[in-house]
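> run fold Endonuclease/exonuclease/phosphatase domain-containing protein
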Amino acid sequence: MGANIAKEAAEEESGSGLNLKVLSWNIDGLDGRDTIARADAVCSVILEKKPHIIFLQEVVPQTLKRLQSKLGSYYTIHISHKLVFQYFPAILVTKVSRKIVPDGDVGMFDFPGSTMGRHLLQLFVRVCGVPMALYTSHLESMKDFSGERKDQLSQCFEFVKEQNELFSRTCIFGGDLNLRDEEVKSMGGLLPKMVDMWEACGSSEEDKYTWDIQANDNIDWKYANKPRCRFDRLYLCPADGPFVKALSFELVGKERLPQIGRFPSDHWGMWSVFQVSEIVSSE
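> ok
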């Protein structure tokens, strides 16, 4: 597997630009059942698909150790250093591509109104010379916390807006945002330059619902109504210039694990590809 990752990275280095592969996934560490088997399945998807950037939510200490063991040779794993709750988001960045380089330390910003320990994780990188800000979060859960969730989303958008407008960084922001469409509409929609990757790539019905009780039975759902929700979102806010474009969006992690009869998570993962053009120095 390691040889395949190195080979693919070498092939990417030979061309100009990069098809940047991004995975965002709530891996449901709060479900205490089959934790290792499900974490291993997440790692298998990652090693097979070889994303450059990974946003994870609901990482717990036990799954973090598994990620470090299985992925640590190929990815740097960034989490907050001041955790309040024992579940948290993480950003993983490939180590094997010279076209993706770090551009600063990880930042963490608490949501002051959260009762669930939620926060925003920020990381700066350069991809083919293009400065980028990466953001992931797990916004406040459940319908009753809609007001706090919208406040948190507004705070996230302010960070994105600042980096995009003042520092000319292309921003990729995604995660389990627990969003309902009416919440986004009530806030006036997205930022002017921001696009929803699912919408930008065709709004496929097959790839719409990231938390789908009709298709995913990991949760012991006891009610007749089985909701299908697009809780997870992935946004692109490009800086000026033709450097980053949306290419594709699909859902992953839909294969049931035969040894346990369950899926890796109660959420599907979001898989997106961005076309990044190389910045050519004028010197």
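The chain has one domain: 2-217+227-275.
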